[in-house]
Amino acid sequence: MSVVSTKTVGNIAIIVIDNPPVNALSHAVRSGVSEQIAINDENDNVDAIILSCAGRTFCAGADITEFGKPPMSPSLPDIIDEIEMVNTPVIAALHGTALGGGFELALSCHYRIMDTAAKVGLPEVNLGLIPGASGTQRLPRLVGVEVALDMICSGKPISAEKALKIGAVDRLSLDDLETETLAFAQELLADKSPLKRIRDITIEAAPGAIEKYRQKIARKSRGFLAPFAAIRAVEAAATLPYDEGLKVERQEFMTLISSSHSIAQRHLFFAERLAGKVPGIDKKTPLRDIKEVAVIGGGIMGCGIAVNFLNKNLPLTLLEVTEEALETARSKIEGIYLSSVNKGRMTDDQMQKCMDQLTFTTQYDDLSTADLIIEAVFEDIDVKKQVFTKLDQVAKQGAILATNTSFLDINDIAASTSRPRDVIGLHFFSPAHIMPLLEIVRTKNSADDAIATALKIGKIIGKTSVVSGVCYGFIANRMSSCYGREAGLLLLEGASVSEIDQTLFDFGMPMGMFSMLDMAGIDIGVMARKNMMVGSYDDKAFLVHDALVASGKKGQKTGSGFYIHDPATKSKTENPEVEELAVKIAEEHGIKRREINAQEIEDRCIYALINEGFKIVEEGIALRASDVDVVFAHGFGFPRYRGGPLHYAEQVGLEKVLKRINEFADLYGSKWWTPSKLLVENSRKN
Ligand code: 3HC
After folding, report:
1. What ranges in 360-433 are assigned the alpha helix state H?
2. Which of 258, 303, 513, 545 could pair with 332 as two cysteines, CB 3.0-4.6 Å apart?
């Protein structure tokens, strides 16, 4: 059956694209649309054409799987031109998410009607691209330069209400989209409405507006190519005739599509979706019903975790040991919501609705109706085991018992219950209501349906989930501790805090290692290492950290750590004590201090990550290399335009990476630098 067909209702032809799951504009769809538009335009019995889609959504864009393959005619820009130039009015009927090329297709139509629940947007920047089928030329003509810049550079879709307000669509459909589109078409015909061709609209930008916008996004879009290319293309729309502007768009699009940035960002797009698929767990596995949630522990982590579920209006019980601790937890959660209200991200009513779902208790018995219980108490194996023993006594049969531990052995925790099949890890990242990553830890006994349900829960609360096996620190923290180890050693060997941080920032990380430690609290790592086996990490790498914490300098929260923080100006300066400590500790350990260049800093930190990432895949802790990339991109802000550590390694060249790791093994010893067997193997295949 063809993916594009026409049905006729009186004098109106309805072209229907049916290419599940998201009606991507594959070659077959493009050919079909081109053919059906021409046939219906030539048909004297057809007075108007409706362009619509079957299934859950209007076209969600170009078919990303076709990128990087030889182009096949007709191209999307070709059919978009054809549609706009026909003499029969064409009306796009939008539902679901009309994104990228899908929205561009709608913009080529003479009119647009949209379901109230639908969204439209140009998210190409998320793939390291710009709209490449006239979106950068048409959208500014329709909604103005600044609004278009916002939509194209942020990539964020907008609601139907907003789309109508800014003039991106002509009408909203409040009930049945097809019926209302047919009525709209008849109205247009009766009114002899002209064919509105967006290309004919002339626009100009307010003086300085484009430059101002470029500066506005400079910080947020640091390192990315696409947002700045998008600005150049929109600038062309505002300053050049339509066809000339289109040439600028095409050139920018073609440069980006083969760039390492877009290849990396497309890799992450598919990696994120693949991460939700677990070999051996059928996607039809019946899921457990999660109607009530409980969180044990009202610290920063527990409160952040709770907010994820309250946001989705799921009833949640929070357990703490004392009434005072509960009161503190209540204020923390209220604080999170008040900050959202103050920033205009939610209304008082929405906040109240979330808070109404929250109950507090000091009694384990009150958790007996919860379907999912997440423990977020102190990071101590004995404390956690006691909690799980109690949970085993009170939790209902079939409840999922999850721990938010960042490092501990969940097999061991599960063994403290009589139902290890129900025990999993749900490892959130701080701040838990904001950070997008969720590590779902599968123990040797975790039931398949518990893991499948956890993946579903991750989706409901808007997280990107990755399944990890049990090992110290799982995927994220195990890799991060190697990265931190090298930063710590470099400090002893002579690099300064700011040199290391600046190098990592320049590589594209949101902040350097020491800024991150100061922000998170240096004491957290110190406490975590107390649970580690002696010899399982390089203790000298963290001696400066230990000394700072011992003297009360735990980072931002105490006013100083690796930096001295000024809360008034939110500025920071390097803490001179750190160098004194580094010199002293280096001397005690016979480490010769020297000048260290930025390349070595980058290679040591990033290649340590890469090597550990390969080991994690080799040991089966991660299901696949791309999962490691997703973890580091979402958990630690590894620059998306580098696609995650293991994709980046491929781009650098595995042989080159291996050679450098071997050099480090010769220089700094094989204990921490033995290359992963998988890396060695894969580098031979390259
Ligand atoms: N091309 C090919 N496959 C696509 C696709 C696309 N544009 N968009 C989604 N898919 C696939 C996904 O890979 C996934 O496949 P899988 O089931 O094998 O894993 C399947 O469709 C379902 O996708 P999701 O799991 O993401 O489904 P959701 O319901 O959660 O989300 C969505 C739907 C909001 C449409 C989301 O898929 C999405 O954001 N898609 C990408 C939209 C996009 O970036 N469009 C621009 C493309 S570039 C372009 O158009 C260039 C043009 O300007 C020339």
Report:
1. 381-394, 410-414
2. 303
pLDDT at 686: 67
Ligand 1 closest atom vs CA 133: 54
Q: Which atom of ligand 1 is nearest to the CA of 130?
A: 53
Four-residue CA torsion sign, 18, 23, 27, 31: positive
Asked whether 337 and 355 are in contact (CB, 8 A), the reply is: yes
Q: Which residue is closest in CA terms to ligand 1's atom 20?
A: 21
Pocket flag, ligand 1, residue 606 (CB < 6 Å): no
pLDDT in tens, 358-367: 999 999 999 9
CA 60 / ligand 1 centre spacing (Å): 6
Q: E strands within 116-186?
A: 119-121, 158-159, 171-173
- Is domain 4-258 in CATH 3.90.226.10, yes or no? yes
> Quick check: helix, strand or coil at residue 339?
helix
Where are the domain boundaries for CATH 1.10.1040.50 in the chain?
476-620+653-685
| Token representation of residue 456 | 């579903």
The segment(s) of the chain belonging to CATH 3.90.226.10 are 4-258
Q: Is 101 in the pocket of ligand 1 (CB under 6 A)?
A: yes
Q: Which has more pLDDT, 407 or 243?
A: 243
Query: For the purposes of burial, counting CB atoms within 10 Å of the CB of 334, is it exposed (0-12), middle (13-18) or buried (19 or more)?
Result: middle
Model confidence at 685, pLDDT cuts 50, 70, 90, reads confident
pLDDT in tens, 400-435: 999 999 889 999 999 999 999 999 999 999 899 999
Note the CATH architecture for domain 476-620+653-685. Orthogonal Bundle (1.10)
